[in-house]
Amino acid sequence: MDVLIRKTASVLIPLFGILGLSGCQVGYLMQSVRGQFELWRDRVPFSEALQDPKLPADVKAKIQLTLRAKEFSEQSLGLAVTRNYTDYVDLHRDAVTTVVSAAPAWHLEHYKWSFPFVGEVPYKGFFDPEDAKAEQQELQSRGFDTDVRGVSAYSTLGYFRDSLLSSMTHYADHHLVNTIIHETVHATLYVPSNADFNERLASFIANQGTEKFYRENEGANSPTLLKIQNENADEDLFSQFISKEITELKSWYDSKPEEKVEEKIKRLAEIQNRFRTQVAPKLQSDLYSHFADKPLNNAKLLLYHTYVSDFQIFEQAFSRHHRNIPEFIQACLKLAKSKTPEKDLLTL
After folding, report:
1. DSSP string covering 52-86, please?
2. Can you tell me the distance from the alpha carbon of 60 to that of 112, in angstroms, rounded to the nearest whole number?
3. By residue range, what is the domain housing residue 218?
4. Contacts of 315 (CB under 8 A, 6+ apart)
5. How many CB atoms lie within 10 A of CB 11?
């Protein structure tokens, strides 16, 4: 699942609203608050970090790139002007949080957690990996498929100031630009209880915006731009593949009179085999080259559903707005209170 960790690692840590919650929810929110305060405690303004003789030159270069990507997101793409990405935090670890996702073993539907303001979300982040492991074990004991992964960036949706984290500085330059744009989309528009729509919209705009950034900064013949275009083409190809597979797998589950584990294992392996024969030979990058390497389960498949499936509906809406990113974003802002944003996107 490295592609999800690298490109679309925006995971909301719900820090707001404790009144009226159960004891377990209060405990979870309090650990989130403690973890967030540790980040705030350790943050250093970019102006100071750039003057620090002990900070490696490559990290300083990432800070400068972050500033350019932030300015581009706000001024050229029309995304929200925020206080985000004006300071740096050295985590002294590879991931900022560990995230748990889950799904029923015999249905393709998210297990969701509910929080104030943001509604239902199909993931839950923990600053302590052991807490994430405990959550995973509890879900598995109840028969759920699970996925646990470390992530290197997340968004607080503009409620708080998000920092450039040391975990993000390990990205390739264009992946960092993509991440900054992705998270800024979340700070611009987040439809409560519609994580799938929010993540796919952010992924789509970030891909288009990153192309625009490098085209304007390095020119149409930029080797980096070519790499981005190849990766975006691969993501579109994979989106078409995984969307079809998920739709067919849902029907397969619905048709099963009995729940036979060996049949499920075989059915999921067939998806990976089709990827090897039908998709992998067409890939122009290594973006999804590891999809077939590890066993699938419903929770892992639904991660792809959340982040990269059904890109075609965004492409169609984008084309209707003349492939103009600021115009497209302004149209999408009309969906802020929509109960069915994917359906309503078709009418924009």
Report:
1. -TTS-HHHHHHHHHHHHHHHHHHHTS-PPP-S-SS
2. 39
3. 2-345
4. 204, 236
5. 22
Q: Which residues contact 37 (CB under 8 A, 6 or more apart)?
A: none
Distance, CA of 85 to CA of 70 (rounded, Å): 7
Provide the pairing of β-strand 144-151 with 97-104. Answer: antiparallel
Reported as a single tens digit per residue, the pLDDT across 162-185 is: 999 999 999 999 999 999 999 999
CA distance 292 to 288: 9
Q: Which helix (H) or strand (E) holds 121?
A: strand 119-121
**100 DSSP β-pair partners:** 124, 148
Tokens of 74: 């706000």
Give the CA distances from residue 257 to residues 121, 249, 254, 270, 296, in Å, rounded to whole numbers and listed in that order.
30, 15, 8, 20, 22
Total tally of structural domains belonging to the chain? 1
What is the tens place of the pLDDT at every residue in 308-320?
A: 888 899 999 999 9
Look up residue 84 and give its two tokens: 């985000």
